[in-house]
Amino acid sequence: MPHISLSSPESTNLRNGAEYNDAMTRMAGELIEKFRVAPGGLTNGSWSLLTEILDFAVEAEQTIAEQKQRIQELESLAITDPLTGLLNRRGLEMELDHAIARNQRHDEPGLFVYVDLDEFKEVNDRYGHAAGDALIRHVARILKGSIRQTDYAGRLGGDEFGLLLSHCDSRQFSAAHLIYIRRRLEKNPLQFEGRTLRAGASFGIARITGNSSRETIMTHADEQMYFDKKARRRARCEMKQIMAVGGLAE
Q1: Concatenated DSSP letters for 14-62?
Q2: pTM for the structure as a whole
Q3: Which of 159, 169, 222, 228 is catalytic?
Q4: 169 belongs to the catalytic site
């Protein structure tokens, strides 16, 4: 039976590849065969081979642990928005799929909230993209701080965010909580390079049900968000008209 030295070029390649299990199996078989035929048990050479195998196993285990950690880091990067640190669209969609599955299996209620910033383009156009990015990060921190640890916040892209709220339905997650988040945004403006940047937001809510697809839930929440945005724009216009009339009356 041929002997494989762990210091040989072959073993170096094995350390870096998926064939190390085969190498260890062959060397262990060689050791067992020597033990079986040797009248005095293990020889010094056999003990040396055993030491090499154990050293190789320790190194291989460490390599596997490092590779697993690297894979986890890469997987995390794949679902993380680099600007905010929240989940990106892919990550939020994955969690929404999980929530739908839990509703199917355990009837677990949940809500998906679509969040769209108001007049964000004006911030970019007036103050530049650096200010816009800073405001996006600021909003992300407020949204993350407004939900529970069991919930998820993600950035869908641009100035759009999503909230995934588990173990709750529309009765529990009332309009009062949306008002709370909206007021947190309005009462906590961002100070950026001597300027005060304010963020308003429109919201749309959709219930998570087992018989609905991810696309259906997100589309419904998006539609509800646009209804909210239009209603708030109408209210602001009416308020401006009232103030203008009041000014004329004076």
Answers
A1: HHTSTTHHHHHHHHHHHHHHHHHH-TTSS-HHHHHHHHHHHHHHHHHHH
A2: 0.69
A3: 159
A4: no
